[in-house]
Design a protein that fits this description.
Number of strands: 7
Largest sheet: 5 strands, mixed
Distance between the termini: 29 Å
Length: about 240
């Protein structure tokens, strides 16, 4: 399959202070959803007749919604820094990649199982340490796995693999979703772009940020996909 090496497209050519209407609509939608959850949860907590178990559940919903809003705001700020040409904060050092994959997979596995999805990790025992920022590496993996989970149907499979290739380790996250066509592959790393079939699944900043992190650590990221054949997002990271 051919690699997609499309450049991230900044929001250029705008009048200062002007933001495209479609961008405003996407961000507003992504903020309104968790905000509605917080509002609903607060209303139920204010109802004295609600059992304690229900109140505990509502508190958890509020916490998750607040985290989603905070994550979106952080992504917007990070995307702005990338487009402004500012260097991302990276603190590289020797990292046990297998341990990071295990940590991130454990964090998202519960959500995948709730959707009837299977999350598999296939890493060799002799995988060498990599030179990376551990927190940033976890951020990239979490984004790719969460992205795969969005597009994988119930009963589908997400697979994480890694293998050494020369002076680098190649990491890949594959899904059994609908896949992407040639036209989609040209735009998949652009901010605020979404395939038509996934227009309600997020603001489209995660992949842009993930690729910027990988490149700041001396690697590269690409996607391989065909319609109906799922998608594989892969990246390289230098061996320590």
């Amino acid at each position: 399959m051919a690699e997609s090496r499309a450049l991230c497209m900044p929001l250029t050519g705008l009048v200062p202070g002007q933001v495209p209407a479609e961008v405003v609509a996407i961000v507003a939608h992504d903020l309104r959803t968790p905000l509605n959850a917080i509002s609903m949860g607060a209303s139920l907590l204010d109802d004295a007749t609600q059992p304690e178990q229900q109140k505990t559940l509502m508190l958890e919903i509020i916490r998750r919604a607040a985290h989603r809003m905070d994550r979106l705001i952080a992504d917007l700020l990070e995307a702005g820094r990338i487009d402004a040409g500012r260097t991302l904060k990276i603190a590289p050092g020797p990292v046990d990649l297998a341990a990071v994959v295990e940590q991130v997979s454990a964090e998202v596995d519960a959500g995948s199982r709730a959707k009837g999805q299977t999350l598999e990790c296939a890493l060799p025992d002799d995988l060498p340490p990599v030179l990376a920022d551990r927190t940033r590496l976890a951020q990239v993996l979490a984004n790719l796995i969460a992205n795969a989970a969005k597009f994988t149907p119930k009963g589908g499979r997400i697979r994480v693999t890694a293998a050494r290739e020369g002076d680098c380790v190649r990491v890949a996250v594959s899904d059994s979703g609908p896949g992407l066509g040639p036209e989609d592959l040209l735009h998949v790393f652009e901010p605020f772009w979404q395939a038509q079939m996934t227009a309600s699944l997020g603001c489209g900043l995660g992949l842009k940020i993930a690729r910027a992190i990988v490149e700041a650590q001396g690697g590269r990221m690409w996607v391989e996909s065909e319609p109906g054949q799922g998608a594989t997002f892969a990246f390289t990271v230098p061996v320590a």
